[in-house]
Design goal:
Largest interface: A-B, 35 and 28 residues
Order of helices and strands of chain A: HEHHEHHHEH
CATH topology of the largest domain in chain B: Oxidized Rhodanese, domain 1
Distance between the termini of chain A: 25 Å
Strand content of chain A: under 5%
Mean pLDDT of chain B: 88
Order of helices and strands of chain B: HEHEHEHEHEH
Largest sheet of chain B: 5 strands, parallel
Mean pLDDT of chain A: 81
Radius of gyration of chain A: 20 Å
Strand order of the largest sheet of chain A: 1-2
Largest sheet of chain A: 2 strands, antiparallel
Number of helices of chain A: 7
Low-confidence stretches of chain B: none
CATH superfamily of the largest domain in chain B: Rhodanese-like domain
Oligomer: heterodimer
Strand order of the largest sheet of chain B: 1-5-4-2-3
Radius of gyration of chain B: 20 Å
Distance between the termini of chain B: 69 Å
Number of helices of chain B: 6
């Protein structure tokens, strides 16, 4: 009679931290807290990036930048949908894609960013979300570098029109910082799963 | 493990399609999928002629093409010498004037870029792209 394995196959869609952790004690809790915080900060960045493309938050962001919180609260009540063509034009300005593709991406990318960020917050489809966000930030960064090399005067639209006056080094530094955080989170999640899933179940 | 990441990524990508499709349907009349310029921002040769004396013709083609021939009374404003030519255009422009920008043909992009920059940088609103460009104007005037 063939012997069946007692090893239960884990649910791969759940978060790595849902498995019993190997480390114990205060220091491991602090480390886990720091990783969780990093994940939430990255998620917040992408939720903000997605929302600035879907909603017209220009006035709100301007008031927040000038620390005018009362006005910002008033702006919150008057938030409307962003003009659909603005982000499409930002993408089109890179002169890489045809206009219909720019329009399709203008509708799709913000939602992809938000869904992936929510994946990070709720630890649902966690590594898939991290890999999509990492790939997308690599693509954005390459597009910005290509535009710079070709001498194009572009507004990246990364954070709606809040980022329209960013210099090239600021763009690059921000993107690379986010990429490093994403890759670190992905490695951490993958290494935890490798430790916790028995070898023959991978 | 790699297939698990890929599966998760595909599921997320499909989830994001739903609201994106909804938004695209909601905005179907607000954005053109064929051109970066909305249909309301384009004029035909006949419509431009109908504007009479209120129209300022702007030639967005390169200097040499403008020099060889252009719409009578047109002002040169191309992206190659934008900073130099923009003040010359603004000296001619006045409130109430409608600006019609053209480039070589239907497929050229220069007029769209000039219209976009005039709207964004000079904050002008009555700026239009001539549908079909210089080729269309020639056809109607021969």
């Amino acid at each position: 009679m063939k012997e069946t394995s007692n090893v239960q196959r884990p649910m791969l869609n759940t978060e790595p931290a849902a498995y019993p952790t190997l480390g114990v004690g205060r220091s491991s809790n602090i480390v886990r807290f720091l990783w969780r915080t990093l994940g939430l900060v990255v998620a917040a960045i992408f939720i903000f990036a997605g929302l600035t493309k879907i909603l017209d938050l220009d006035h709100l962001i301007a008031d927040l930048q000038q620390l005018q919180f009362a006005n910002a609260l008033a702006d919150l009540r008057n938030v409307s949908l962003a003009k659909p063509g603005e982000f499409a034009r930002d993408i089109d300005n890179f002169k890489i894609l045809p206009w219909p593709v720019s329009v399709a991406l203008a509708f799709y990318v913000p939602w992809l960013e938000i869904f992936c960020a929510l994946g990070l917050v709720f630890r649902f489809l966690y590594r898939g979300a991290l890999s999509i966000l990492s790939a997308s930030i690599v693509v954005f960064t390459l597009a910005i570098i290509a535009a710079k090399v070709r001498g194009l005067d572009i507004t990246c639209g990364c954070f709606g029109h809040a980022s329209q006056h960013w210099s090239f080094p600021s763009h690059l530094a921000t993107n690379l910082t986010i990429l490093v955080a994403l890759v670190a989170l992905l490695f951490k999640a993958t290494s935890e799963i490798r430790r916790q899933i028995p070898f023959n179940s991978r | 493990m790699k297939s698990s990441i890929l599966r998760q990524a595909v599921i997320l990508a499909l989830f994001a399609l739903l609201p994106a499709a909804g938004e695209a349907i909601y905005f179907r009349d607000k954005i053109s999928w064929r051109s970066a310029i909305a249909p309301s921002e384009m004029v035909t040769v006949e419509q431009a002629r109908g504007l009479g004396d209120t129209v300022i013709w702007v030639d967005a083609r390169p200097d040499e093409e403008f020099a060889s021939d252009h719409v009578p009374g047109a002002i040169l404003l191309n992206e190659d010498r934008w900073n130099e030519l923009l003040p010359q255009f603004l000296a001619v422009w006045s409130p109430g004037k409608k600006v019609v920008v053209y480039c070589s043909s239907l497929s050229c992009n220069a007029s769209r870029e000039v219209v976009r920059r005039l709207r964004k940088e000079a904050q002008l609103s009555d700026v239009f792209v001539l549908e079909g460009g210089w080729e269309a104007w020639l056809k109607k005037n021969r």
